[in-house]
Amino acid sequence: MTRAKLGLFAALAVLWIAPLPLSVSVAADFDIVPKVSGSWRYDSNYFKADFNERSVFTYLLQPGLDLGIETAKSSVKLNYTLDAYWYDDRDSVPPFERAASDYNYVGQTGDLKMRYQAFPRLQFGLDDTLRLTRDPGQSDQFSDSIIRAKYCLNAVTPLMIYEFGPKFNAAVRYRNTKIDYLDPKDIEDSRENRGIFDFIYNFNRRNSIDLQYQYWRKDYEVSSDYSSNQVKLIFRRQMRSFDLIVGAGYQNRNYTDSTLGSDGVFTYNVILDGEILENRRAYATFRTEQNLNDQAFGSDYFIATRFGLSGGYEFTPKLSADALTSYQISDYQLTPRKDKTYTLSGGVNYRFTRWMAFNVAVGYETRDSNIFGLDYDNTFVIARLNFAYEIGRK
Questions:
Q1: What is the SS3 assignment for 7?
Q2: Which is nearest to 246 in space by CA: 205, 293, 209?
Q3: d(CA 125, CA 16)
Q4: CATH annotation of 2-393
Q5: How many CA atoms lie within 13 A of 210 on its CB side?
Q6: pLDDT for 263-315, tens place per residue?
Q7: How far, in Å, CA of 40 to CA of 384, rounded?
Q8: 147 near 115, Cβ under 8 Å?
Q9: Which of 5-9, 174-178, 187-191 shows the lowest per-residue confidence on average (mean pLDDT)?
Q10: What is the DSSP string of 250-282?
């Protein structure tokens, strides 16, 4: 299945460019960047357990490729890595538990973005996201899960953007998302079909407002399916040093299982991103958001309220440092459970050459739950070496 998806990525990129006139194709710009990174990670509590913590080393090798093709009317961007993970227990393995090495696997990370300007005011596009991973955070931006199950996620999004004039434009997107669990196989798969409609008014080149409507349906093999309607008003402003995004709206969710009823939540997001100093050597990003989670095991749906702050400073063109912190409250709707998860990390980055860089980071994460046995604390250290070399441009 994953090989087929990788082949699909390449085939879509070729088919997007192939129909163009030869004269246009010859004039295309090509960026080809082979890359590889290797990293080592230490977790004091890899499985995020309240009791019987186990420290684990993680080794990761990621060969990959960045590809960019651009013509007068079209563009293709492909980012892909093959992700080989190895795990090594630093503590004795308790009876009846799996060794960390049993979780060794080869994953994939792929992002494909294609655009075609069919007419001066009409643009078509296609986005494709591929993940083969054990990271539960890839399945849902608000994920509160600690399950290390391996799954394949594929999200395909065709889209169309039409500009009515300099002030007003509209966008229509359809997203089909499939999540298939591979290890263990007894976790149910899911399918989601989502329509996204944006109507955008540009006050000027720095300020705009977006009326967004989304409708989606989530289907499971056993658990209750659901459908959601969400309407949101989003204001965007470009300031001298910062970009500001403020959105607010409401989501209504109905479950097919009548015993679950329906959920409603006031949803919002605020993002402030930009430079702290005019010399562009320091930056910071603040964000806060609230919404229901989309992907769940059984009926584990909750309202997530998240706050995040990140920033960095460039000491020299080669040496920089960054830090981030996040805090999420997960208020479960169908059970009395309430989790509070906090993460803090900081790191140093050094660029040896244009194509080779090294970074090291340390961090701490903790979850405080009102349900016995769901708390955890984890300290981690990460060291990574990256190579990325541009070998071709036309």
A1: helix
A2: 209
A3: 10
A4: 2.40.160
A5: 20
A6: 899 999 999 999 877 677 899 999 999 999 999 888 899 999 999 999 999 99
A7: 7
A8: no
A9: 5-9
A10: EEEEEESSTTT-EEEEEEEEEEEEEESSTTSSE
Instruction: Please name which of 245, 259, 240 lies closest in space to residue 212, comparing C-alpha atoms.
Output: 245
- Report whether 156 contacts 174 (CB < 8 A): no
Q: Is the peptide bond before 95 cis (omega within 30 degrees of 0)?
A: no
Provide CB contacts within 8 A for 108, sequence distance 6+: 2, 5, 6, 80, 81, 82, 83, 130, 131, 132
d(CA 366, CA 376): 6
Pairing, β 338-353 against β 356-369: antiparallel
DSSP 8-state code for residue 93? P
Helices (H) and strands (E) in the chain — how many of each? Answer: 2, 19
CA diameter of the chain = 67
| Alpha-carbon torsion angle 43, 44, 50, 52, nearest 10 | 120
Give the start-to-end residue ranges of the domains of the chain.
2-393
Distance CA 220, CA 300 (A): 13
Predicted TM-score (pTM) of this structure: 0.90
